[in-house]
Amino acid sequence: MKRLALVVGAVLIAAALAATAVTFASSGGTTIDHDGENVTLAAAPGQTVSGQTDLDAGTTLDVRLTSTDASNPFLQTREATVAENGSFATRLDLGAVSPGATATLTVRHNDSVLASESVAVVPCDDDCEANTESGDRQSGTTVDREGETLTLVSGTASKISGQSDLEPGTKLELLVESTNVTRPFLIRESSNVTDNGTFATTVDTHSVAGPLNASVTVIHDEEELTEVDARVVPCDDDCEEQSSGPGEGTPPSEFGLEEDVPVASQNETAEIPVAVGDADAATLSVGDEDDVNYQINATARDENGDGRVVFVLDPAAAGNESTPTMTVRDDGDTVSINSETDVDGPLSPATYDLVLYRGESADGNADDVGALALESS
């Protein structure tokens, strides 16, 4: 359903960085380039991550940056392609992340972690500002808006449109992301360029409590084409008549997570909505035993036919045999827990991986990924 990707000149970037970066080995023949004890990234767009691997040229890698502070949650996932010399590179946008934040950077292939490093986010210096301002975005794609800021109304059908000089039929990815790190959200949709050079899509912002500042980014073939400032505002009376409440609107037809980074307090239940499309079942894996010492896999079915299931995770129930940790919200839908790590007591505040699979098992390639941020109560 959704996939973040910003890769710009991957081979050239990796080759240039490899000459100066210190490379630390990880298991499986894959390394991440960096100086010092951890990876250092500036709080700005266009932050390059690179490395080396012994996988075949052309292999697609999943590069994921996950916050390690539940009170400052963020998640970015990019794809990188292995070059002929075994290098790979991609770019991350940390413009909305505060300096001082910490995270974990992982490189994965077929859901296996090949390399992992700690990340420190530092202030953007003069060189960083210069590189950010001189970025290589293409001017042939624009987003329609009045003034400098695009206004989106909180609801199930906020429209984003624009023009592009790319060929008709070209698929564009549109990313709507909060620029307030204390109130994160991330929404991804797609649209095709029409014969007259326009594109349009609708995004579901019903879960975003405006007013809130955001950005809208248009991406093609893993390259960022343009980015504009946006603001999500509350829905007025006329809007309310046209929109449904949370979880009641028409779900996306594609299979995937409806929210990339759900946020919940450790003493409250966390809702994780999933659009099932035409799938018979959806299996969700929360956590990772290697990273956070906890993982639960559960399979849900859309028995009431509304096109979605809402997984409900109860952090306080983990380790409690009398209360299930995972249920579903809507009447008629069903869920079964396939496996769960045996833990002593409730889940701790942390960022937990969300990995979604079509069908009844957590095997094979994931269909979507995200993260659940559990904050301290």
Rounded Rg: 20 Å
Major sheet: arrangement of strands: 19-27-26-21-22-25
**What name is given to the CATH topology of the largest domain?**
Immunoglobulin-like
Please give the share of residues in helix: under 10%
**Percent in strands:** over 45%
Uncertain runs: 1-27, 133-139, 240-250
> Kindly, what is the distance between the CA atoms of the first and last residues, rounded to a whole number of angstroms?
32 Å
Second rung of CATH, namely the architecture of the largest domain:
Sandwich
Tally the helices.
4
Quote the average pLDDT.
79
Q: Can you tell me the CATH superfamily of the largest domain?
A: Immunoglobulins
Largest sheet: 6 strands, mixed
The total count of strands amounts to 27
Q: What structural class do the secondary elements suggest?
A: mainly beta
Shape: globular
Kindly provide the name of the CATH class of the largest domain. Answer: Mainly Beta
Q: Into how many domains do the coordinates divide? A: 3
